[in-house]
């Protein structure tokens, strides 16, 4: 085989959706087919080519084993003859649970492999395992722990694509994998979300005004709430406001109401959805990079329609790093099958988070001014009044 042959390596702990994502890939494009590894041992046989230890010994003697590992009292083998046959008939999708295995396949079998990390929290793995009546849920949780340890032990390994399967459907995951593997890659454009693509401030201002009117709080409490929530709001923000202003609800109740109502009210700036679609049609990849909580940001992304017109989303709470830290930009690049060292753009309205952070990650930057003067400091590569101007500038050949 040669590097022109394409294949997919799905890595992740048990119950992260490797089977369902593979089936979704096959529905999307029948050329994608599960690569059935050889298995010798007890337990599940579906999805494997069952073999005896004697057959495995023959493959070892012939030097035809690319990788093998033992788990659940069984031996699993990735064999060269099986891969040859799989590539001859389509695009193989291989499931692996060890980074050593991913490395072994990348180095031991010449092909254009796309490496994909499928991930979900441990409690989601447990719930899924119980829900499908697995007889060995404790063993699968132990495997989840081993996978986390495996990732921690290999901090230098970077996957081409990272997908949270508790936040994305199998069909969406399949579309992202298919697009990354098959679409010619143009520029990488990272774009801020709040007050860059959507008018968050207008929505927050309206929500605060409505809430204060409902409770007859007056102009000073209204201004205090708006000042506290203008840039960022979370449960901690509401805990402070509830204590300071003696608001009638408990902080967690008010936060739950705010999450739901704000997501329903946010709107993209005029023309943004079409501009993002045009940017992707031009061959560029668009990744939303946003600070904030996972549930509220994803709800806003869905309600505003932004989720449907970007290639990937990177949210600070979900990866444990906030802009301007370089790690969030690195994670965003990986989510689109890129490396931040390849370069690209960061577009946003916050001089510190987006411009300073983007520059620190090695990206060119565009600042969305919304009519404001530049506040000072190292300047961005371009100043645009709106996201439409920014996307037009980047699409216009400034490479």
What does this entry look like structurally?
There is one protein chain. Helix content is 47%, strand content 18%. The chain is α/β, with parallel strands linked by helices. The chain has a six-stranded parallel sheet with strand order 12-11-10-13-14-15, with helices on both faces. A five-stranded parallel sheet has the order 2-7-1-8-9, sandwiched between helices. Strand 13 (345-348), helix 16 and strand 14 (364-368) form a beta-alpha-beta unit. The longest helix has 17 residues, at 137-153.
Would you summarize the structure shown here?
With 399 residues, the protein is an alpha/beta fold. The protein has 17 helices and 15 strands.
Ordered list of secondary-structure elements with their pairings:
Elements: E1 6-11, H1 18-28, E2 32-34, E3 38-40, E4 49-50, H2 53-61, E5 65-71, E6 74-79, H3 80-89, E7 91-96, H4 99-108, E8 112-119, H5 122-131, H6 137-153, E9 161-164, H7 170-182, E10 188-191, H8 200-214, H9 219-229, H10 235-245, H11 251-265, H12 272-281, E11 285-290, H13 294-304, E12 312-315, H14 316-319, H15 326-335, E13 345-348, H16 351-360, E14 364-368, E15 382-384, H17 387-395
Parallel strand pairs: 1-7, 1-8, 2-7, 3-4, 8-9, 10-11, 10-13, 11-12, 13-14, 14-15
Antiparallel strand pairs: 3-6, 5-6
């Amino acid at each position: 085989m040669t590097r022109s042959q394409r294949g997919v390596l799905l890595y992740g702990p048990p119950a992260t959706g490797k089977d369902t994502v593979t089936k979704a890939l096959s529905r999307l494009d029948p050329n994608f087919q599960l690569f059935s590894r050889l298995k010798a041992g007890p337990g599940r046989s579906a999805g494997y080519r069952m073999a005896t230890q004697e057959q495995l010994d023959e493959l070892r003697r012939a030097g035809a084993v690319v990788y093998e590992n033992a788990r659940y009292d069984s031996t699993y083998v990735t064999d060269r003859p099986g891969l040859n046959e799989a590539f001859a008939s389509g695009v193989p999708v291989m499931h692996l649970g060890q980074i050593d295995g991913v490395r072994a396949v990348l180095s031991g079998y010449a092909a254009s492999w796309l490496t994909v990390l499928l991930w979900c929290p441990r409690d989601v793995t447990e719930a899924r395992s119980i829900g499908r009546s697995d007889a060995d849920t404790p063993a699968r949780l132990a495997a989840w722990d081993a996978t986390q340890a495996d990732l921690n032990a290999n901090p230098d390994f970077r996957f081409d694509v990272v997908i949270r399967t508790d936040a994305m459907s199998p069909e969406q995951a399949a579309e992202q994998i298919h697009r990354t593997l098959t679409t010619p890659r143009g520029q990488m454009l990272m774009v801020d979300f709040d007050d860059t693509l959507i008018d968050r401030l207008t929505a927050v201002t309206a929500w605060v005004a409505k809430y204060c009117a409902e409770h007859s709080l007056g102009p000073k409490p209204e201004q205090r709430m708006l000042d506290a929530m203008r840039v960022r709001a979370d449960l901690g923000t509401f805990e402070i406001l509830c204590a300071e202003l003696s608001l009638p609800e408990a902080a967690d109740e008010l936060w739950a109401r705010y999450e739901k109502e704000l997501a329903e009210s946010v709107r993209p700036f005029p023309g943004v959805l079409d501009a993002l679609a045009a940017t992707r049609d031009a061959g560029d990849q668009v990744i939303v990079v946003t600070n904030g909580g996972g549930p509220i940001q994803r709800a806003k992304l869905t309600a505003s329609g932004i989720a449907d017109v970007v290639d990937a989303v990177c949210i600070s709470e979900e990866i444990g790093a906030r802009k301007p830290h370089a790690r969030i930009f690195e994670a965003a690049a990986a989510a689109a099958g890129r490396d931040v060292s390849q370069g690209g753009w960061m577009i946003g309205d916050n001089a510190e988070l987006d411009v300073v952070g983007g520059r620190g990650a090695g990206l060119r930057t565009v600042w969305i001014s919304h009519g404001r003067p530049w506040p000072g400091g190292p300047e961005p590569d371009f100043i645009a009044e709106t996201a439409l101007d920014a996307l037009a500038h980047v699409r216009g050949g400034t490479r």
